[in-house]
Amino acid sequence: MSTRRAARSGVLRSQSPLPPFSRRSLLAGAGVVLAAALPGCGRSSPVSQSASGSAGPLRIGAIPDQDPEVLQRLYGTVADSMSAALDLDVEYRPVTDYGAAVSLFRTGDLDLVWFGGLTGVQARLQTPGAEPVAQRDIDERFTSVFVVNAATGLTPSDDLAPLAPLRFTYGSETSTSGRLMPAYFLREAGVDPQGFPGGPGFSGSHDATLQLVASGSYQAGVLNKQVWTSRSEEGSVDPSVVLHTETPPYHDYHWLLGPRAAERLGVDDLGGRLIDYFTGLSAGDPADAEVLELFGAGSFIPTEVANYDQIEEIGRDLGLVS
Amino acid sequence: MRYGGTTALAGVDLTVGPGERVALVGASGAGKSTLLELANGSVTPTAGSVRVLDADPSARSGRAGRRLRARIGTVHQHLELVGSLRVVHNVNAGRLGTWPAARAAWSLLRPQGVPDVVAALERVGLADRAFERTERLSGGQRQRVAIARLLVQQPDLVLADEPASALDPALADRALALLGDLARDRGGTLVAALHDPGLVLRHCDRVVGLADGRVVLDRPAAGLSPADLADLYEAPA
Amino acid sequence: MTTVLDRPVRPVVARLRRDRRRWAWALGAAAVLLWSLAGAGLFTGDVVNPGGTAQFGRFAAAALSPALDAGFLGLLASSALVTVAYAVLGTALALALGAVGAVLVSRTTWGRRRLGWLLSRGVLAVPRGLHEAVWGLLLVNVLGLDPWVGILAIGIPYGAVTAKVFADLVDEVPRGAHSALLAAGAGRASATLYGLLPPAAGGLLSYSAYRLECAVRSAVVLGMVGAGGLGYQLSLSFASLRWEQVWSCVYALSLLCLAADVAGRAVRRRLAAPPPGPGRDPVLTGAVVVPLLLVAWSWWYLAVSPASLVSARTAEQLAHVLGAAWPPATDGALLGSLGALAVDTVQMSVIAIAVAALGAVLLAGAAARPPGRLSPARRVGGAVVRTVLLLLRAVPPPVWALVLLFVLLPGVLPGALALGVYTLGVLGRLTAEAVEELDPRPRAALAALGARPVGAWLYGVLPGAAGPVLAYALYRWEVAIRDTVLVGLLGAGGLGALLASEIAAFDWAAVTTVLAAIVVLTLLVDLVSDRARSVMR
């Protein structure tokens, strides 16, 4: 009897620790797989949607710098309000990573994104035809605050030089207010922005910066003034963290519109209509007021590419824009 | 004595005195191993009681229990040696009942009491293998390592579960003689489960036959012939 | 009276011979560990920051009061589904790739053609050398917001690892049956099918279940780079340091891991001891049907479309990224920094593995579930240790890195310890399983001759467990090198920090260079650990 015959007749089968599966059960399994997979073609994914095909909604996104529920609520509200005003389907897509938001804007997965100053520049340079749409009133004069641990004994001052010998942390690497502009002002003050003992840290977020400075692991750090103010008002700032310096103002967050949205949605002058929508938001209107409050803004104002020239220049100096 | 739903031993009433050399005979599954495990405290009887060296081996815990168990030496059927250790450590393991933990740990790095170990290994003919890894030894050699462990343990009661199963007839004879000496030198006792009628008759004073968990024979070895034992090795019906 | 048991009395007495190679490796390992600890500044200055205990305490205390409001739990439930779907499809892809890959890289296939075997192994090192998160970041740039990002990011590197492990498992099966079949005239494929696969089936299945659990954890890391699911929620909560919410995510993740673990264990038990009698075993039938159903459901739930893999846009983006990434950056400053950062990375991984291996050896006894009846105290203790290990590996390394940075000063150490505790969670589980599979009889025999528990453990468990633990530790060392990418940023440094900077700056040419350096480092570590494992055998 050949081996193959032996195998077929079951002589060798007893070696296997696996019980035999009948052909029927395998076929049934395969059938189930197919049956379940086919309807999937028409379903929209909970994580994404193919960018090709029909026009679809206007897809808005944002770099994450808020609490999860706030973020979900914030952009749900904005999407609804925008949808009503523009008579368009608007959909919010969650993204957690600065770099991912820039890439997704480039690939066209996101049409309209709320970027920080630096990420906006990165996205615009990688996506020819992208245009800034609007910024908040506060973004025109945005600032960062340098904070120190009380144990350093430093008192509020305009001089950044005393920070040089301290263990120092920035926020996220590509944060404008947590990294880029502070590094610029440090250099202006004669402090090497990469020269802190042991190298600067990157806490990853404004809140993490606050906690790390409070712990004393890092003796000093820098964060967005808006977060500092909001945490101070909540009373959640550890008393061991004290403000050292507030930076001069610079431009920061803005809405950036991708080049392909207008054509895909078949809306002429989409940019113009978005500017009108944002600048038209009024604190007097209850629905508008909610949007403005969620953004922590008094109003939205138009913006232009030139506002971010300084950021681009500094980004190039620091090797963050290529 | 029951394991789950299977009764391994039932109604066994057996007394073994100091200095005796007792052979347990019976077919596989007759309850020989269980009887030995009861005696060294590895298992606890579900009914009845066991007294060994004036104590209940399973009831005594902690230091007193360890002291008692250190006086009982067992050669296990499957040897229970640690293959990845050197022979010297497996022999030294016989002293774990008396060694403090720190000494036991240190010995793994720098073997302690090597002269005694070598002397014991010499008696089983393995002095040249003291520092070999145990898993590199043959089955018969491992059986002799297990006996050497007993030699350094110096127990008062020697329990042996088929201690000669992997040895050729000549070596088996010597192994049994060695175990008998070990017990007798200290005025102690040997209880051995054995399969070979010849070994039983040459090395034991008393024969206890088991079948289906019951004692079916208990007589002095003198006066028994190999044919008398043959029935007991037949598989139970 | 002295009976001597042997025919000719041999007076030869052996002398203790230490295995020189083993000692050389052991001393080398100790030296590398000391060098790494010195590099972490352990001998030269303060490394502990007692001031941060309050911040660390807040993280720890939140473990007892996770966020439980209905809205957040609902969010978690739907996120968990996404994570499960990614893990299932990623694992399925990995197993398919692994099965094909195993054929291509096994010694059985190559026989004596050693060069071909080495080359095929080398090719596998590239996908394996990159962390899932790195794959995720790269794929986002090509595929955008497509579910394929998560599936491929898990499936590709896991497929490469699985191919290697499957090949090793099959290669280690004793050749007897296989040779007999070949001698009887069976073809190579059918000889493998009948002579090699059945004996290896238990190992293959057990490894597949382990991969699924790993995939759940990887899906969370991927969520942190934008693929959605539990990781997305976790990273949002983490960014705003809402520890209560972070812990809820961790618990949800632990439950998923536990489910994968329990299911895998049940199937393994059944395979090891099939119930007697004819008829189909419901557990094993389930083990085939449930994964198939899960794959189908995941495919449907994520609305995966093969079309997006070959769409024009994908090709365009791929061309964009490849065009920007090639040729790799070769400027002197970058190349110069690679060497120093590679040293940091190695030191970090060595400390991580040392911490994890030590912890695993100490905890393995308690975490293992030996057969037979156990005292209630032992059972509760075992459950507690296993839960702690589960949580250690359910908290993602970046979270560990931040909370350890509260109580340690910046440097290599917080990152190393973050990886260390995370790896301990993984290694502790693997070690406990190895201990469970040890022969329990030697230890019982030692207890029977009166050894104290410590002695019985030292002589009866440690010698048997040391081999598998060291082998797993060496294997995880390679993984730890890749994982340093996750903790590099927080002042811990290493190649991971450099990679994150270059990705943040979208300097693709430099990214290529750093990735190549990481792959080479992974390959070197793999070679060293392979040598070390062969010395131990």
From TrEMBL, chain A:
Region of interest (Disordered), ranges: 43-63
Residues annotated as signal peptide: none
Pfam families: Phosphonate-bd (PF12974)
Keyword Signal included in the entry's annotation: yes
Compositionally biased spans, kind Low complexity: 43-57
Keywords noted in UniProt: Signal
BP GO terms, sorted: transmembrane transport
GO CC, alphabetical: ATP-binding cassette (ABC) transporter complex
InterPro entries per UniProt: ABC_peri_PhnD-like, PhnD, TAT_signal
Similarity comment: Belongs to the phosphate/phosphite/phosphonate binding protein family.
PANTHER family for the chain: PHOSPHONATES-BINDING PERIPLASMIC PROTEIN (PTHR35841:SF1)
Protein name: Phosphonate transport system substrate-binding protein
UniProtKB/TrEMBL annotation, chain B:
GO cellular component term of the entry, any: plasma membrane
Molecular function GO terms recorded: ATP binding; ATP hydrolysis activity; transmembrane transporter activity
InterPro entries membership: AAA+_ATPase (IPR003593), ABC_transporter-like_ATP-bd (IPR003439), ABC_transporter-like_CS (IPR017871), ABC_transpr_LolD-like (IPR015854), P-loop_NTPase (IPR027417)
Residue ranges the record marks as coiled coil: none
UniProt keyword annotations, A-Z: ATP-binding, Nucleotide-binding
Keyword 4Fe-4S: no
Domain ABC transporter: 1-237
Keyword DNA damage: no
Protein name in UniProt: Phosphonate transport system ATP-binding protein
From TrEMBL, chain C:
Family matches, as InterPro entries: MetI-like, MetI-like_sf
SUPFAM superfamilies found in the cross-reference section: MetI-like
PROSITE patterns from the UniProt entry: ABC_TM1
Residues covered by the ABC transmembrane type-1 domain: 80-268, 342-529
Keyword Transit peptide appears in the UniProt entry: no
Subcellular location: Cell membrane
Protein keywords: Cell membrane, Membrane, Transmembrane, Transmembrane helix, Transport
TM helices/strands, residue ranges: 23-43, 72-105, 214-233, 245-263, 283-302, 346-368, 399-422, 456-475, 484-503, 509-528
CC annotations in GO: plasma membrane
Pfam families, A to Z: BPD_transp_1
Membrane topology value: Multi-pass membrane protein
Protein name per its UniProtKB record: Phosphonate transport system permease protein
